[in-house]
Write a structure and sequence with these properties.
The protein has 7 helices and 18 strands. The chain has helices spanning 38-48, 108-115, 131-149, 186-197, 225-234, 255-258, 327-350, and strands spanning 5-6, 11-16, 22-28, 65-67, 71-72, 75-76, 81-86, 152-160, 163-164, 204-211, 239-244, 262-263, 266-267, 275-276, 279-280, 285-291, 301-304, 310-313.
Length: 354
């Protein structure tokens, strides 16, 4: 396994490079008989795609998805679904200066030492461009889950750099370029404008939620639902921390508070984040992600070249000053992929047990 395949029964293999001719994925294990066309997938890709505001990379990619296989007369056939997204706005010359140098905080150094070579164009395989096929696959998963169980996914930004973002309403999230749950985003507009002028970047915190999740998804001991969610979320570019439910705040909680009391009407709280013993409880799945600052910035920084000699690195090109701004739909997709895989696994093992 090369680290490009996710899932056990709902299996997604991601392929391509940032500046190659195309990127995409192959989905194996999608049940047959589900209505599916490109529009079902394109909606989520349009939420993630670059160039949608001045606060993200200005690379202008339509991210138009093509379904190459696995769908006949508008329905999934149960055979592998191949999804293709062609790259149309590469500007590889921007990366000529770093072909022999390592950008601090980037994957250049580790890719070079692991493989003995690397594709410097846009970060190659380590680029956040490769999240587009993930979102495409996630769109297929979330449609099946919605139709089978009524499961819904949503995500928002809860912190931008040092700015904590209060929660007002989910209805605000699709109405602004930051995916923030507040009506007035001027503070965040100003913050990002100043950040760009300073040739710097910042991190972000993302909250992602799944509601309408059936009870019983997840397997002890090593395939716990929260363990698989954490693994997959850590596979997202720039993620450096994952919390389930109360997360690190649970350290300061007493057991009398953290343990979610159960009544005949249901759970009173959800500090567990919808998962108990690695198995879904039927409550909302709550996940929070910490995303580091973008590594590719114009500020000069010391590094070395492939010969170990000291150099100064300035990264040109078109980059997100905060990759967290476009992370919400990606986090939703990743959560959908994990839940889809576990739903099929649970159905296979326990479908006739109750």
């Amino acid at each position: 396994m090369s680290g490009s395949t996710l899932g056990t029964l709902f299996c997604v293999t991601n392929f391509g490079e940032s500046h190659g001719p195309a990127i995409g994925c192959v989905i194996d294990g999608c049940p047959p008989g589900m209505a599916l066309d490109a529009a079902d997938i394109q909606r989520d890709l349009d939420r993630r795609r670059p160039g949608t505001s001045r606060h993200v990379t200005q690379r202008n990619e339509p991210d138009a998805v093509e379904i190459l296989s696995g769908v006949y007369e508008g329905q999934t056939t149960g055979t592998p679904i191949a999804l293709l997204i062609r790259n149309q706005d590469q500007r590889s010359k921007d990366y000529g200066d770093i072909a022999l140098r390592f950008r601090p905080g980037h994957a250049d150094y580790t890719y070079w030492h692991k493989y003995g070579l690397r594709d410097p164009r846009g970060g190659g395989r380590s680029s956040a461009r490769l999240t587009a096929p993930t979102v495409a696959a996630g769109a297929v998963a979330r449609k099946w889950l919605r139709e089978q169980y009524g499961t819904q996914f949503r995500a928002c930004m809860t912190q931008l750099g040092e700015l904590e973002i209060p929660f007002e309403s989910w209805e605000h999230v699709p109405r602004n370029p930051f995916f923030v749950p507040v009506a007035d985003v001027q503070r965040y507009e100003d913050y990002m404008d100043a950040l760009r002028k300073a040739h710097d970047s910042c991190g972000a915190r993302i909250r992602v939620q799944a509601s309408g999740v059936p009870v019983g998804l997840g397997e002890p001991l090593y395939d716990k639902l929260d363990a698989d969610i954490a693994k997959v979320m850590m596979g997202l570019n720039a993620v450096k921390g994952v919390e389930i439910g109360a997360g690190f705040a649970s350290v300061a909680q007493r057991g009398s508070v953290h343990g979610d009391a159960i009544t005949p009407e249901g759970f009173e709280t959800n500090h567990a984040g919808g998962i108990l013993g690695g198995i879904s409880s039927g409550q909302d799945i709550e996940v929070s992600l910490a995303i580091k600052p973008t590594s590719s910035i114009l500020t000069p920084r010391p590094s070395i070249d492939i010969n170990g000699q000291p150099v100064e690195v300035v990264t040109k090109g078109r980059h997100d000053p905060c990759v967290g701004i476009r992370a919400a739909p990606i986090a939703e997709a990743l959560l959908a992929l994990v839940l889809m895989d576990h739903a099929l696994r649970n159905r296979a093992q326990c479908g006739d047990a109750r």
